[in-house]
Amino acid sequence: MGILIDQSKKLCTIQTAHSTYQMGVGTYGHLLHYYYGPYAEGDFSAMLRFRDRGFSGNPYEAGNDRTYSMDTLPHEFSTFGSGDFRTPACLVKDDHGVYGADLRFVSAEVKPGKYSLPGLPAAFASEANPYNDRNGFSRDLYSVSHDKENTEIDHTTETLIITLADSTVGLTVKLLYGVFPEIDVITRSAILTNTGNKTIYIDKADSASLDFLTGDFDFVHFSGRYGTERLYHREAITEGVKSISSIRGESSHQQSPAAILCAKNTTEESGAAYGIALLYSGNFKLSVELDQFGSTRFSAGLNDEMLSYDLTPGEELTLPEAVLSYASGFAALSQHYHDLVNFHIVHGAWTHEDRPVLLNSWEGCYFDFDGEKVIQLAANAKDLGIDLLVMDDGWFGKRDDDTSGLGDWVTNEKKLGMPLSELAKRIHALPMKFGIWIEPEMVSEDSDFYRAHPDYAFVIPGKKPVRSRYQLVLDFSRREVVDAVLTKIVETLKPAKPDYIKMDMNRSIHEVYSQIAGYQNRGKLLHQYVLGVYDFITRLKEAFPEVLIEGCSGGGGRFDLGMMYYTPQIWLSDNTDAIERLSLQYGASFFAPVSTMGSHVSAVPNHQTGRSTPLATRAIVAMAGSFGYELDPAKLSDEEKDAIRTQIKIFKNYQLLIQGGRYYRLTGPSLGITHTEGYSATGYTAPEAAMAWEIVSADAKRALVSIVTKDQHCNPPVCYIKLKGLFMNQMYRISIVLKSTDFLDRREEEALTAPAYTGAILMQGGIAVPYFAGEYQSILLSVYQA
Ligand code: GLA
């Protein structure tokens, strides 16, 4: 395993435990992509066919050979302007507006360890697993799935650097590859340098572009909207280009910088699945192109709309990291990403600690609180067994609604009735942990900060700003703006000794005009804005090294792997409806581990949908995340309070398994395009009947299974849900950990819990979805070795 360079064949092969990635230098020095897929050995350049294609460009050096065509060869990092008409990885123009880059191979070198990217998030090599020796779990729980056959695991990471250049244009490209062999992950990035003596313009720049000789793929992406983020979509690829993207200045609620290319027959269990995820929180584009000959190009990078990134002589542009993984089946692919995020992306305080169960004040009282009310919330939360009280929006400046105050990061002592330090001290004395909300990138026009620094906001001169949630965006591409906000926030929060900070961002960015740079949205500014945000969080973390920082952007507007590098958990959605959350958590689970998904139990009727669901159902859904509550405990009945005390005990009992175990989706559209899984013979479907998921320990001795019923029908057939990840021949028992209601027929409960089962029965037969009266019922099952 590792990176192998065969100088004689000009071949470069990356081997991971189960995958192989190969490229080589073509006859005229172009870097060609030969193969990416299941582990294989050999020289895949043998697959190329050279034919005379009409209307295709041939390099000059090819002379009379018309078979070496730039737009039919598979490229590793294509450019436009030298004969390839497909989506270019890099579009560069000179100062006369001429697009003619033609990158040729210069060198390849291998270095030990994993590269890092200045100012940008990047996966890193991690030696020890911090979960080691905790509660008897070993590293195995978190590294490679027990059902993989490999025994020798290479934990070393390596970096491959391939240099390409076009001396006429004055562009050098260093392609970076990081290899994580044990989890079948290959990261990519690139550094573009202007090596000429005139400014050049980068009009498109992909972090990774993947060419496949064939094209019979489906495209899986995760699109939605505010409050309904990351829904699973699967569609056939047809001729032309399909892209998903954001030009909102953030990775967005609408589309997600992570997607999958898969074979037609790919299901959770098997079939080729290629993931691409960007560690980036700004404007991005992922695209898939099916070309004239049925070849496919899958690419990911900065959004090229309105991009014209000027590179002056000597200047570099480092592209965000793209993370690729190949797996057989969606379950394994997701597990690769979960391991990557848990062990090679998330870092710092609280990464591998049991996250505190929190109570967030937002849905409990919105802007309507004072200090005594917050302390009372904390005391009531403590009585329930909650660890942390988060005081959400409304504690600073003049902020009784969302029309004013952003930017004034000074405690509103008049509203609170006390200094922040006193409030925090009284909460800490309970004892409870104390958390607080900030939204550093934004400013209200009605704020002292804006009145003092109107030039700090993005506003187009002579034009009234288009507002969103009544607020403007601060120009975080400017260091002095970041400094000013950071200094004030640190100064205000320090005396309170917070344990947690929720960092929010509540609007998209439209009019992009820096009062200093003096230009409109040319992409460069918004990229530098994202770098400014990363710089802000980095320095916030330095100021509060022990603090748990939760990301947020009106829920899931910036729920991406880039943000996860800085914030180990991110509020998944402002939508707290348990039934809606089933689809949101399902979609998010393809790339994000459970530990990253902020999930709370809220009051009913739900504030977003008006739906009422049982308290246990809300808890079972929220437990598949960074667990918390978002309601006013004073409004709960004694019975509900007792139920919550029990829920928290259950969560803490299983927290380590939930945060670190192997996650499997048990129902849902990804289980099979032919829907053979999770369906009963009657045509009545398990996904209609229920959503289910499972978290399995790596030794496969125990698992937690969650089932939530949806629609209820008269006289329904029995539906079976097949468990995963267990040993076929081991005996298991099932116990009920939590349920929202009693079984209609007690004998059915006995039928579930009395027998011992072989893994084969549970996985190949399945367990019956319980017949509960009413909809939205749920059950949490513990499966353990008998
Ligand atoms: C956003 C967040 C919410 C809450 C509000 C406060 O919408 O997603 O959780 O913090 O802002 O204004």
What can you tell me about this protein's structure?
With 786 residues, the protein is α+β, with helices and mostly antiparallel strands. The chain has three domains: 90-123 and 153-343, Distorted Sandwich (Beta-galactosidase, Chain A, domain 5); 358-571, Alpha-Beta Barrel (TIM Barrel), CATH 3.20.20; 664-785, Golgi alpha-mannosidase II (Immunoglobulin-like), CATH 2.60.40.1180. It is built from 15 helices and 38 strands. α9 (561-566) links the parallel β27 (548-551) and β28. α7 (479-493) runs parallel beside α8 (524-543) and α10 packs parallel to α11 (615-622). The two termini are 38 Å apart. Mean pLDDT is 92; it is low at 128-154 and 673-684. The structure holds alpha-D-galactopyranose. Alpha-D-galactopyranose binds next to loops.
Keywords:
alpha+beta; Beta-galactosidase, Chain A, domain 5; ten-stranded antiparallel sheet; eight-stranded parallel barrel; globular; binds alpha-D-galactopyranose
